Amino acid sequence: MNAPHIILSEPQTVPDTLSRILADKYEEVRARAVATPLAEMERQARAAQAPRDFVTALCQAVADGRVGLIAEIKRASPSGGLIRDPFEPAILADDYARAGATCLSVLTDAPWFQGHADHLKAARAACALPVLRKDFMVHPWQVFEARAMGADCILLIMAALSDQQAEELEDIARSLDMGVLAEVHDRAEMDRALGLQTRLIGINNRNLKTLQTSLETSEELAPHVPADRIPVAESGIRTPDDVRRMAAAGARCILVGESLMRQADVTAAASELVQAL
Question: Residue 130 is part of which domain span?
Fold first, then answer.
């Protein structure tokens, strides 16, 4: 394929918290791309073990009338601070798989979430579930890095990307047989996300400026997701009633992290959500 032409320019205007995170991310990618050039990262990506089908797994859950749970593994967050200690990604991945989760999401951002590529590698090796790399993707280098570390899907946050960036990052992911979860927070971002090819439209219930959550965001946006796409409700989902509320709005797929990470028995907590319908 032709060499990606996106340059590491400064991020566009975005909400305060996201803006600070992206400023750190651009600096991080600049430094790491010097240490490992893009051509070498692409070589590693294309030599990696074949990806698992993240998108099909969720589509099948919906077709079967099941909850498509993307169970998240993260140690900390900007809003919640340190969430889980000790933090054992491999054990958590196995717990989620035994609970009936459809996919995993693993945070790899270090400055804000205390994440690491090794967390994703350990989680993926511990189970057979497809894995989303949860990070702030701003450059092709990161997409190749995601595949090289074993990720099966990447997250594209529409609030952080121009249409050109989102399309190019998706094209690279598709060339690597990876899935894409396009995340939106309002109707305008959804309209932009629908210009991508991915079937997965993530609706984040968290306000990126205040870090507060409201399930009303998914209730407002999910009914506008076309029938050929799959809405995924993200953030603020804690109980079986919340799962049923999201399903009633049209989102049978959910991404749940912090509320599960805070449970002593992760398997039981995840199983309760999976069996909510």
Answer: 17-274
Cα–Cα distances in angstroms (integers) from residue 9 to residues 142, 162, 189, 193, 265, in the given order: 15, 11, 21, 21, 44
CATH number at residue 236: 3.20.20.70
Which residue from 225, 133, 240 is spatially nearest to 181, judged by alpha carbons? 133
Sort 253 into a burial class: Cβ within 10 Å, 0-12 / 13-18 / 19+: buried
Positions in the chain short of pLDDT 50: 1-14
Q: Does residue 251 lie in a domain region?
A: yes
Give the chain's largest Cα–Cα span: 49
The span from the CA of 211 to the CA of 18, in Å, is 10
Q: How far apart are CA 193 and CA 196, in angstroms?
A: 6
Question: Tens digits of per-residue pLDDT, 133-154?
Answer: 999 999 999 999 999 999 999 9
Query: Residues with catalytic annotation?
Result: 72, 74, 134, 183, 204, 234-235
- Contact 155/137 with Cβ under 8 angstroms? yes
Task: Enter the tokens of residue 99.
Answer: 């609970």
